[in-house]
Amino acid sequence: VTDAEILKDATTTDEIVTNGLGLQGQRYSPLNILNEQNVKELRPVWTMSFGGEKQRGQQAQPMIKDGVMYVTASYSRVFAVDARTGRELWQYEARLPDDIRPCCDVINRGVALYDDLVIFGTLDAKLIALNKDTGKVVWSKRVADHKAGYSITAAPLVVNGKLITGVSGGEFGVVGKIEAYDPKNGQVLWSRPTVEGHMGYVYKDGKAVENGISGGEAGKTWPGDLWKTGGAAPWLGGYYDADTNLLFFGTGNPAPWNSHLRPGDNLYSSSRLALNPDDGTIQWHFQTTPHDGWDFDGVNELISFDYQDGGKTVKAAATADRNGFFYVLDRTNGKFIRGFPFVDKITWAKGLDKNGRPIYDDSNRPGSPSAKEKGSSVFSAPAFLGAKNWMPMAYNRDTGLFYVPSNEWGMDIWNEDIAYKKGAAYLGAGFTIKPLNEDYIGVLRAIDPKSGKEVWRQTNYAPLWGGVLTTKGNLVFTGNPEGYLQAFNARTGEKVWEFQTGSGVIGSPVTWEMDGEQYVSVLSGWGGAVPLWGGEVAKRIKHLNQGGMLWTFKLPKELVAKH
Ligand SMILES: O=C(O)c1cc(C(=O)O)c2c(n1)C(=O)C(=O)c1cc(C(=O)O)[nH]c1-2
Question: Active site includes 295?
Answer without folding.
Answer: yes
